[in-house]
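Hey, quick one: can you model this chain's 3D structure?
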Amino acid sequence: MQKQKRITLNAEKRKTIENVFQSHWEREDSPVVREWTQAKNSYDTMKPKVLELANNVIRSHQPQEDVDTIRSMIQKYDRSGGELYHDNCFNFQTPTIDDEGKEDTDEINIDFTLKPRLSGYHGSSAFARAYYRVEMKEKGLNPDYDLQWKEEKRNPRYYDHESACDKWLGFSNSSNEDKSITKPKQEWESDDSYKLWVIGSSYCHTRQFKVDETTFEIFKMFRKSQEDLVRTHEKIFNYTDEKIKKLRLGLKSYRYFDQAKALADKLGIALNESILNESSSMALSVYSPENLASLLEDKVEMTREEKIAYFKAQQQSVN
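Sure thing. Here's the predicted structure for all 319 residues.
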């Protein structure tokens, strides 16, 4: 019987194999992906409840009858009758005491748009890319570009991926685009169910609504749910990236497909010859599938802090 010829790997085949491994590590039942899913569900659950709370606060400061009065004045006198704005961004403050025992004020911004003002991410599309990471990957986009090349911002690849992501999300547009397609940014901004009528101009920072400590803490929880979504998205990348770096070392030195296949089998990853299109030769293998598999297996148990965070996320999703 004729011996079957071994498939020789080249750069393209190695990249294809790498993508298979990455898809496995980013599967829905992966611990880090489950944590991201919990964070997203928590945000989606809190969002309408916080909107209702914000509406109660704002109407206590700006009664509906006052809004109706100004609306009728605008209809009669145009802008001279006053100003109203249908807003999705609000500022709240509560009295507090600073470290020196003096009266102070805590402030928080609550933003229902796709680009909330999060600590460390002001003006960034990080939240949007975290929220739509699955949909963007399905479109062949890279929502992790800022993490992948955060030390190489002058690298053209960074700006190419940033531009592609911003275009899909709707943060940038070109004149020759199909205007019938509603992008995520426009969809969120046009959603009137997450807007409230306020007295004043369109400048969100000009309005400060006072709240009690309990209400303020609920707003802080909502902000945290937005930040948790970004954090868990970054955690998926860091988790996968660490494994990918180890995998690349092995694949670079594997010469034949059956070596990669042996590694995949040890990790329970489905890898078939059908994913490969052509063959070429590279360096002789120096990493054994057994050794590399031990590096890539999930043997480290979650820390106490991670377990607590995961439990809280589950509780929030239930509530």
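One thing worth noting: Strands lie at 84-87, 89-97, 103-111, 196-199, 209-210.
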